[in-house]
From TrEMBL, chains A, B:
Gene3D superfamilies: Farnesyl Diphosphate Synthase (1.10.600.10)
Required co-factors: Mg(2+)
UniProt keywords, alphabetically: Isoprene biosynthesis, Magnesium, Metal-binding, Transferase
Keyword Glycosyltransferase in annotation: no
CDD domains given in the database record: Trans_IPPS_HT
Family: Belongs to the FPP/GGPP synthase family.
Organism: Endosaccharibacter trunci
Keyword Metal-binding attributed: yes
Protein name as catalogued: Polyprenyl synthetase family protein
Length: 289, 289
């Protein structure tokens, strides 16, 4: 299910990115390199699945999915830079600044962020400008200083000093949680869900994102680089406080389970249409990469 | 006139940026450092002046002005990075990565871009979602791969090799011209100008932006670093093709004049209300920093 949807989202990204041409061809090439060629498309899946729940499957949902994947890709390109996490490997391939160079990677990340907003603003995403501007506002809120980028700043500053559990929870709620919650909410916005339904989906997304990150820490501590397709054990090595360091491996596994179960609880009113979202919560705690 | 408006825009930026607090305080501090404390606010002035021409002076115009200045500031922060133009000085002060560090500068630029879109998406900018989404679409178009960032990529690749005049013109039309044109168009969007009026303003903005860049090359070749508040002669030193290298100083001055005059020509239908925009075109070619 995940693989089939990933292929659809991949193809939407391919269609939506500008073709490689002109004096800026290297930039466009790097944008494609950073976004295409794999990935689970977890965030995009989430958007399309919630959109379908509210009767909004189709081109608009694929565009929203492509947009959130571009935003996510931009964050990975910048996070991998030497001045940031200094990671040479991403999905088993050279990270963008290794494949190209630092300047190109910085610019490709910048332009991917812009492109994510450009896609949402286009009438092809939703005929109603009110829905499009709500998507733009929600993405900006999730990804900027009060969200993802704020979380990345806290993460950079946390290197080499011990953070307490509430600090680590807030860090990840911002750094990865907000964008995952947005991916869920975006589907509800696209489907013009009622405020109560949108709120339930937002809470599901928040807990799903938290479960995702705790499970990620467990994977980082237990799986090999080959399995993960990225450098393993990096966070511990960089002296970052992880959920595994704070809770132990068994404790972190139990916490991921608790969060995934709580996430599913918010889906109770949605019946059989939400079975894909329930399966996603299971997948998040059971995945191996 | 420029100084008075600049103070209003400065105060709008100050109000609109998030307050410095939390674990991400360093990020918020760097965002403020990069955007506040001076600058001519040329792009913001242009937006407010066009908005006023179409009867849309006020809070919305100041928000649009603050937004375009944040977008511009993000581009400067990233352009100054060691992997890009490697500039230690900006407006006579340490550039953001010198004042803070590279990671913080990358993140501050990222978050300033996001904030520029967040401000446009907010109902306080314009009550009509159609106007707000048009602003978002226009800013994304002007600042991403088909605009500013694409131009910066061409600029990086042009170092050390000779570009012909049409290539240099396209480079700058993208790198600086598109955002200046947007700043003008944004005022017209805010004032719900007719398509014909918006088009005239866009053409004025395009030529004004071109004149601005040619005049900038002349300043870079003729003024001291002290006068400019930034490193002088850097482009020539980096082996970049400039208008001065291609046209000579007198030729470049004449070209800037020609472009400014052509820009003003597009204002003919607007009468006395456009006197500020005419003065701005004069200012662009007569300024000393």
């Amino acid at each position: 299910m995940l693989a089939e949807r990933a292929a659809l989202i991949e193809s939407a990204i391919d269609r939506l990115l500008p073709p490689v041409s002109g004096g800026e061809a290297r930039l466009l090439d790097a944008m494609r390199y950073a976004t295409l060629g794999g990935g689970k498309r977890f965030r995009g899946f989430l958007s399309t699945e919630v959109a379908a729940l509210f009767g909004a499957a189709g081109e608009g949902a694929l565009r929203v999915a492509a947009s959130v994947e571009m935003l996510h890709a931009y964050s990975l390109v910048h996070d991998d830079l030497p001045a940031m996490d200094d990671d040479d490997l991403r999905r088993g391939q050279p990270s963008t600044h290794k494949k190209f160079d630092e300047a190109t990677a910085i610019l490709a990340g910048d332009a991917l962020q812009t492109e994510a907003f450009a896609i949402l603003a286009d009438p092809a995403t939703h005929p109603d400008p009110e829905a499009r501007i709500a998507l733009v506002a929600a993405l900006a809120d999730a990804s900027g200083a009060p969200g993802m980028v704020g979380g990345q700043m806290i993460d950079m500053q946390g290197e080499g000093r011990a953070l307490a559990l509430p600090e680590v929870e807030r860090l990840h709620a911002l750094k990865t949680g907000r964008l995952i919650r947005y991916a869920a909410e975006a589907g509800a916005i696209l489907g013009r869900a009622s405020p109560a339904d949108r709120d339930a989906i937002a809470q599901y997304g928040r807990d799903l994102g938290a479960a995702f990150q705790v499970a990620d820490d467990v994977l980082d501590a237990t799986e090999t680089a080959e399995q993960l397709g990225k450098t393993a054990g990096k966070d511990a090595e960089a002296g970052k406080s992880t959920f595994v360091a704070l809770l132990g491996i068994d404790g972190a596994r139990a916490e991921a389970e608790r969060l995934a179960t709580r996430a599913t609880g918010f889906l109770e009113g949605f019946g059989a249409g939400a079975s894909g979202l329930r399966a996603l919560a299971r997948y998040v705690v059971e995945r191996r990469n």
